[in-house]
Structure prediction request, 307 residues.
Amino acid sequence: MKVKITQRESSALYRLLADTTSDIILKTDRKGFIVHASPAIERLGISLPSMLIGPHIQDIVHPASAAEIEGRHQDAIEGRQGADWMEFPALTSDRTERWFEIQMRRLVDDRQRVYGALSIMRSIEERRSFEEQLFAAAMTDPLTRLTNRSAFMTMLRHVVEERGGEGCVALIALDHLKAINMKHGQTAGDEALVAFSEVVRSHLRAQDIISRIGGDSLGVLLPAASAEQAEAVCARIVGVLSEKRQIAGGGTLSLTASAGVARIERSVDDTLRRAEMALFFAKSGGRNRLEIDGKLQRGWSWKPGNA
Prediction:
């Protein structure tokens, strides 16, 4: 059964909702100036009764979203509004960002003249926080707190497809992790991986991106790095690990690593195949060394003490 509500009842219902809901109800004129708002707008640090002229709807959003929300308001005025909600960051009086979603409908008088728009703003802070936590969990390795293989592949694909494939990829593996686990236990192995990750991270450039992509291996994106620059970075990492002593397992384990480097070219699969081949040669050549794709067939390799 359809509920019939008179104009006076609609007005009473509006006041009831405006006074009790945590949503922000806005009434704007045709130009987008706020002429009335529910008490919840005070959450943004705005007190309309104390203002001679109400703010424009653009004034309560982040500048990056101002044009979009102005366009959405114009669509509502011209009757083009859809049923979808628009998400945007609003600004409080102390310039703090808080995320909301908004929906707008135009207001028409008895003579069918449009005189403004009615909008509902709803906070989505909790939802966005939850979504960000889920995203972080899905893209993060829980042990090392680095991004995981899925994130690494996404970033590599972006470099290949969007940035023209400039730079290099390095695959760096902790040597003999399985033996560490068997001899000293899983806890010691985990400590070794964390220590290994920290050493690698601390010797990368600010623009480099590191991820844990396998049980014993890390992937490093070196955007815009030449093969010589990537070689220098990875040689430093392999060398530093080789020189350190007793850095994991309660001060009883010395760690070494093997690394393979390849330029980012053609495709994600081709780039990874060449980097994996370089890492394979580093491991099969005795570990604790660095191999560079492109130098493999010339019999080149680098290990600590070779410089």
